[in-house]
Write a structure and sequence with these properties.
Radius of gyration: 37 Å
Strand order of the largest sheet: 1-3-2
Structural class: mainly alpha
Number of helices: 26
């Protein structure tokens, strides 16, 4: 296998020539042999040659150990990156990635620094090129000479005399990011780090992390205990549960626990114990809903874990997913809306969820039978469930509903007619089958028939008005959400709303960031709706009467003025 590879950015350039930045800024000061190594490597890479590391050494008549040193030198200039030492592999980087460029420096300006740095790094000689890198740090980052010496001394104390220049540069840049470029500020930062070192050592020993803590670890530790709010026991527990043997893996684990609001040792243990079950359940939910998942992780994080945090059991979520599929709620977003409804109503406990779903299934079965009695074979719609709840609130039992359905069969709008019949019976105090007037008795009372027909006409009129307004709003929403761009924005807004709820509890700064992002997404959504010639206002039903919202009755329950006008028109 070839020992050279290129970064993605370099490959995208598709260039067969040397970058101008390399020629103008690097070539004048670069070691001649190193320049030859770099240019020949470019040639081999761009020509597609399958040269090995040994072949390159022979072509340039350079010993392999010496050739490796030149690549280390090029890496210090950030022109290449050494990917692997055994086998030896190198990646060519873009020249513009350089944070500091080679330049000429007056030796006398840094003579004291050079002596002090070499006294600190007693185990090896510092090369001219390494000194140049330190000069760049002082020139471009503003380090005081003594401040950089303190950083080099810290790195040597931590990792020994053979510490590479690349690591020293990395540490120095991390200090510069926090504004620690003077000897005083570097000393303060190292003192603060030293104060937390015992806690870090104890943590590393308990977690089985086999390394000495350094400044980067200290930064992470302060994040875990400060920003995220974990105590040492919880951090140790996380390392064991996630088998995190490095600080990077531990940081990822604690970030995951933070998102899911697991801070206590027991919470962490329970979360990890159920984690595999949650992933398995997510796959099962996707199967129940008929959803294809390329990867389950986003669904676990944005939906299933959130539902579990609400208090829903895995068994309940399994049952809810099966119910949602039958109701046409065939996505995680639709199921999320249904679960939020249950959560808002306080229906969370497993027994409560089971009772609720059983009641819903029984109601749907009854509605289907009523529709059949009305002569309808359509699917159940939300209006049907609302009507059933209303009829029951009026005091009618199932037998009375079926009687009203029989009378409504064959009418132009059976459900509206049925609503009018029941309303008429309610007004006459008829709540049992025995009290329903027979056909002959009914015909003997034309005044009663006329009154009933009037009520039926009124109910049908207001049903048609409401249904038209609500159906129009539903069509507008469906058209908008079916658009890939707006649908994606709406989905992202739903996810951010959930994250905002958590952030408002734990982190006000994060909550502000999420709120800003929500505003930005809402603006993008408005722009997309304009492109689709849809107004957000179209999602809300526009009732013909804003006083009663096309129910015929105002807030006090009295007949609305619009109903009085309609009755006069009849």
């Amino acid at each position: 296998m070839a020992f050279l590879s290129a970064s993605e950015g370099f490959i995208k350039k598709s260039t067969t020539s040397v970058e101008n930045k390399f020629i103008s800024k690097y070539l004048p000061t670069l070691d001649p042999v190193a320049a030859k190594v770099y240019l020949y490597s470019l040639y081999l890479l761009q020509s597609g040659s399958s040269y090995s590391f040994t072949d390159l050494a022979q072509s340039l008549s350079i010993d392999e150990d010496k050739l490796q040193e030149y690549f280390v030198y090029l890496e210090e200039l950030e022109l290449v990156s050494i990917v692997s030492l055994s086998p030896f592999e190198v990646k060519i980087l873009e020249a513009e990635n350089i944070s500091g460029t080679p330049k000429k420096f007056k030796p006398e300006k840094y003579s004291d620094f050079c002596k002090n740095a070499q006294n600190v790094l007693k185990g090896r000689m510092i090369s001219t090129n390494e000194f140049r890198e330190y000069f760049v740090l002082m020139e471009e980052y503003g380090f005081e000479q003594n401040a950089l010496i303190m950083i080099i001394n810290y790195c040597v104390n931590m990792h020994g005399d053979n510490i590479r220049a690349a690591y020293i540069k990395k540490v120095a840049k991390s200090f510069a990011e926090e504004g620690a470029t003077t000897a005083k500020k570097v000393d303060e930062k190292l003192s603060a780090y030293t104060s937390s070192t015992p806690a870090l050592i104890s943590l590393f020993n308990a977690a089985g992390i086999k390394k000495q803590p350094d400044v980067d670890d200290d930064k992470l530790y302060k994040k875990w205990t400060g920003e995220l709010g974990f105590d040492d026991k919880a951090i140790v527990c996380a390392t064991k549960q996630f088998k995190a043997k490095t600080c990077e893996k531990l940081d990822s684990a604690l970030s995951e626990l933070y998102k899911n609001r697991k801070f206590d040792v027991k919470e962490i243990e329970d979360y990890c114990k159920n984690k595999n079950s949650v992933y398995a359940l997510t796959l099962e939910i996707a199967k129940n809903l008929g959803v294809y998942m390329q990867t389950s992780a986003p669904y676990v994080e944005n939906y299933v874990n959130v539902w579990c945090n609400y208090g829903f059991t895995l068994s309940s979520l399994r049952e809810i997913s099966a119910y949602c599929f039958k109701q046409g709620k065939n996505s995680f977003e639709d199921m999320d809306g249904f679960i939020l409804k249950l959560y808002d109503e306080g229906t969370v406990a497993e027994s409560a969820v089971t009772d609720y779903l059983e009641k819903q299934r029984a109601d749907d079965k009854l509605i289907k039978e009523i529709l059949t009695a009305c002569g309808l074979q359509r699917k159940i719609i939300p209006w049907d469930r609302d009507s059933l709840a209303r009829w029951r609130s009026w005091g009618f039992n199932d037998n009375m509903l079926f009687e009203a359905a029989k009378l409504s069969s064959g009418k132009s709008n059976p459900t509206a007619y049925m609503n009018g019949v029941l309303s008429s019976w309610k007004a006459d105090g008829i709540f049992s089958v025995e009290k329903i007037p027979s056909h002959s008795a009914t015909t003997a009372k034309p005044a009663q028939n006329a009154e009933r027909d009037m009520r039926v006409e009124i109910e049908r009129h207001y049903y048609d008005l409401r249904h038209s307004a609500e159906e129009s709003a539903e069509r507008a929403l469906k058209k908008a959400t079916s658009d890939e761009v707006y649908g994606g924005i709406r989905k992202e807004l739903n996810e951010l709303s959930i994250k905002l709820a958590f952030a408002e509890i734990r982190d006000k700064n994060e909550a502000e960031k999420i709120s800003a992002l929500i505003k930005e997404l809402e603006a993008r959504g408005e722009d997309r709706l304009s492109e689709l010639a849809i107004s957000k206002d179209d999602f809300t039903p526009h009732y013909s009467c804003t006083v009663c919202n096309d129910t015929g009755y105002d807030k006090s329950g009295s007949p609305c003025e619009c109903m009085k006008k309609f009755i006069k028109s009849l």
